[in-house]
Amino acid sequence: MNGSPHDLPPDPGTLSWYDRAALLTARGAATDVLTPRSMALRNLLWSWLAALAAAAGWYFAWVGLGWYLGLDDPENADLFVASALMIVALLAAAAAAMVFRRVVRRARATHRLLEAWTALDRRPRPARCLRATSRSHSPRPGT
User: Fold this and answer.
1) What is the Cα–Cα distance from 20 to 17, expressed in whole angstroms?
2) Distance (Å, rounded) from C-alpha 114 to C-alpha 26?
3) CA dist., res. 5 & res. 11, Å (int)
4) pLDDT confidence of residue 6
5) What string of DSSP letters covers the chain?
6) pTM to 2 decimals?
7) What percentage of the chain reaches a pLDDT higher than 70?
8) Cβ-defined contacts of 18-25 (< 8 Å, 24+)
9) How far apart are CA 103 and CA 49, in angstroms?
10) In the prediction, which pLDDT does 125 show?
């Protein structure tokens, strides 16, 4: 996938911020969007359903082929029924495989974006805070 889907935030490597507060605000908004999607039960259910449909498609294709090969004296109508059953089953398996691929790619993109956004500014800036507190406790010169 070259880019992220339209409803996901952009890659933070392509953005710039004018100060730390803007970066933290953008990071918070992006993680609020990405966190529920990275652990979505919906993705798990779609992937299981797609895998089940792909397996069922292959199963019914083999059943159709086995049924046709098991006939003692197949006729043209039997060949048509077996061929139609196999074609529909294989198309269902292919569609399910495409749905599975889409769900997995989307989950990967979401996970990568979440990692990239959470990696921004992980360390607080304690030196600035320490300087501010140390100045407030120092005695004033000349008193």
Assistant:
1) 7
2) 12
3) 11
4) 67
5) --S--TTSPPPGGG---SSHHHHHHHHHHHHHHHHHHHT-HHHHHHHHHHHHHHHHHHHHHHHHHHHHHH-SS--HHHHHHHHHHHHHHHHHHHHHHHHHHHHHHHHHHHHHHHHHHHTTT-S--HHHHHHHHHHHHSPPTT-
6) 0.59
7) 80
8) 20/121, 20/125, 23/120, 23/121, 24/121
9) 11
10) 55
Please compute, for residue 59, the number of CA atoms within 13 A of its CA located in the half-sphere on the CB side.
6
Q: How confident is the model at residue 131 (pLDDT cuts 50, 70, 90)?
A: very low
Residue 129 has pLDDT above 60, yes or no: no
For 57-104, the pLDDT digits (tens) are 888 888 877 877 777 777 777 778 778 888 888 888 888 888 888 888
Cβ–Cβ under 8 Å, residues 38 and 117: no
Please state the φ and ψ torsions of residue 126, each to the nearest 5 degrees: -70, -25
Q: According to the model, what pLDDT value does residue 1 have?
A: 43
Q: Euclidean distance between the first and final Cα of the chain, in Å?
A: 67
What amino acid is encoded at 59 in this protein? Y
